[in-house]
Amino acid sequence: MKNHERTVMRMQPMHIRTQTFEEVNLGYSKEEAMQEASRCLDCKHQPCVNGCPVGIDIPGFIKMVEQDRIDEAYRIIEASSCLPAVCGRVCPQETQCEAVCVRAIKGEPVAIGHLERYVADQYYMKHHNVESIKQKSIKVAVIGSGPAGLSFAHDVIKAGFQVDLYEALHTPGGVLSYGIPAFRLPKDVVKREVDTLIEQGVHLLTDVIIGKTLMLEDLHTMGYHAIFIGTGAGLPKFMNIPGEMLNGVYSANEFLTRINLMKAYDSTSETPIKRGKRVAVIGGGNVALDAARAARRLGADIVYLVYRRGMQEIPARHEEVEHALEEGIIFKLLTQVKEIIGDENGTVKAISCCEMILGEPDASGRRRPIENPKKIMVFNVDEVIMAIGTTPNPMIIQDHQTLQATSHGCLVVNQETNETTIPMIFAGGDVVTGSATVILAMEAGRKAAKVVIERIQGLT
Ligand SMILES: Cc1cc2nc3c(=O)[nH]c(=O)nc-3n(C[C@H](O)[C@H](O)[C@H](O)COP(=O)(O)OP(=O)(O)OC[C@H]3O[C@@H](n4cnc5c(N)ncnc54)[C@H](O)[C@@H]3O)c2cc1C
Hints:
Blueprint: H1 14-17, H2 30-37, H3 47-51, H4 58-66, H5 70-78, H6 84-90, H7 103-106, H8 112-126, E1 139-143, H9 147-158, E2 162-166, H10 175-178, H11 187-199, E3 203-205, H12 216-221, E4 226-229, E5 235-236, E6 249-251, H13 252-262, E7 278-282, H14 286-297, E8 302-306, H15 318-326, E9 330-332, E10 335-342, E11 348-361, E12 367-380, E13 383-386, E14 390-391, H16 395-399, E15 425-427, H17 430-433, H18 438-456
Parallel strand pairs: 1-2, 1-4, 2-3, 4-15, 6-13, 7-8, 7-13, 8-9
Antiparallel strand pairs: 5-14, 10-11, 11-12
Helix pairs in contact: 2-4, 2-8, 4-5, 4-8, 5-8, 6-8, 9-18, 13-14
Bound molecules: flavin-adenine dinucleotide.
């Protein structure tokens, strides 16, 4: 039995890391990848494949890595996923494919995500150009170029239809571009995977807001046979506590977008951002961790992560929590912010918080946090970043009254087909589920694409 230990990925040294937005993880060498691949037990029942929402043939591609057959490995992954370099970096593998890896029963699972990233990076370095697929006269529109829209476009273009991809921002990629910082997901990695789709024939139209620049009705009259809405959940939530309007309070969305898309970290950038010295980030998900680590890189001496539950309940990826702790982020757990306190100029100077105690599990299965009003804590900070969640932007729903949405603003779709309440208009990703994960958005895009292709080809 192959029993050597999981191959650790090399990282940037700590003294460099907190000064730069360069990627922290450095990837595997060929030898490391082949060694890690050789740990795969090639189980008959392949639980990892079921653990992957888009069903990548994981043992299949890992076998190819073991034999140093990168092209074949890439083809296997690409049959199910158009974003392998992205997913290899940001998927929560520890709760998906790696969680069910048989090796995890007695030790460390195979590093599936690291191997996926290795294959995508190696393949890209070897080949730059991909063949364009001949277009047909059937036209399909995609609204939003995040993982859901990209995954949908990938499958539909492969079927030979024309795909027009409308994006509100000047840069495609959705959260991959404007949300996740470069030290976790370098922007050239996102660009090259989007570029691959464009080379395959997807027609990208940026700076077009559907619901404003063009209406859904316009797309109908433009003759699209089907429309896919993948507009995400980019509207930040706030807590409605005193002080949220003070100078120095950001939503994580705005904070990260300014950094990622407008290079606010660069002192020559025209779009500045406040560089707090003592920063509080409110929340415990990936977004909060990204904002906290970005604030540290912008020069903050103290960064508090204020989270109302405990370490066990923290929803962010394990690796990000580890990296944040290594980088000196101070976790204020079981702590709920009650008020943001300002100075005489209307600028943040402190937060007042209350201790929390964990009660019985709530509907999410996590223990419910209950306030202990007797224990109040005040932390002096000069910047507060709210990262307590987001909801879908209502613009697209307001554009079309028959497009049904839940009370949380999520689009209602048929669970089997991902079709909305309007025939041949489909939706998927965060706009349907509320903020979730890259791979689940991709899965929704694939599901809708399959139905669209079958419908158009007259198979159903
Ligand atoms: C900071 C941050 C970190 C995250 N980290 C992780 C992680 O590590 N791992 C993970 O799996 N998930 C992570 N997530 C969640 C993940 O990124 C999302 O679940 C995923 O991107 C959702 O994909 P989507 O395609 O549904 O939407 P999005 O990625 O939000 O893309 C939607 C796109 O639609 C565009 N759009 C919106 N409205 C319109 C309109 N009216 N017209 C035209 N275009 C429009 C938007 O500009 C955007 O480009 C993170 C999220 C954030 C914010």
